[in-house]
Model the fold of this input.
Amino acid sequence: MIAIVAGFLLVAYLLAPGAIYRLTFSFYIPSKRFQRTRTEEIVFSVLVTVIPFLLTWILLDHTPLGGYPAIHSSIGKREAYRSVLSSLLSDNTHGSPALITAYLRAAAEQSRFVAILWFFCAVEGWQTGRVIRSYGDYPDGSFLRAFCDRFLLKNVSEWQVLFTTLSLRSNDPRTVVEIDALSTLNVLYRGRLVNWFTDQDGKLEGIFLINAQRFRRDQIARDRANNIFKESEKYWTPVPGSNLYLAAANLANYNIRYVEPSDIEFVEQELGTGVVITPLPPERAEDDSSSIESS
Done:
């Protein structure tokens, strides 16, 4: 019986609150993925549960809300807890009606406490995610920025910070992330970053680019040898299919650029990627048609 009660307390007061916190936190920011040890998992759960636990205790024990919903029982709360504790330490009273009543009263009290505790953990994770989501808007030296740097960002993947506009202000027009990647085969690629993949330890496995292009280094070398000089932009050629996946193991280095979206990309960001954009006819065609009608 002691093992059952200890397991319930571990799950209800530590493991479940930590999981609920991460779930609601990830609604705004994907949490950092890595394998924690059992000790690290318990320490993390303790840290995120402290404030919700105190709020729940104050709410139930020091406000009138602690009496709702009313629990009708022939035994008081304190007496029920004493009976349960004594039964865990001794097997003399197992199966007695009084002890069953005590267990039912204690279970009802714990159910109310745990439900409110989980709710506060969900609110805490949700609010923490909102705070980090606005990280770029906090001025340097402010309390919230320092608090994020010191504590909150430790639970956010470093790739989330690098590969998104999280560090930029919300009104910054640069909402597109582009990557210049040099492979281990000395081939230079560039494109718009749309996704990336990590393993269970949070290490980068690969990046996915659209509108990908490859730099023709062999062509520019031949042109320079023949004293032909062109703009570097002319040596970029589209990758077949324009979609490119680069494995992290094959990347020597990469450069991250935040740029403003094109007109089409801006419309897609505002209305969604399924929008079909029909170009307007040129003005010259309108002028020609109007002249034919007049004639």
Remarks:
- The longest strand covers residues 204-215.
- Residues 97-133 form the longest helix (37 residues).
- The mean pLDDT is 83.
- Residues 183 and 251 are 4 Å apart (CA to CA).
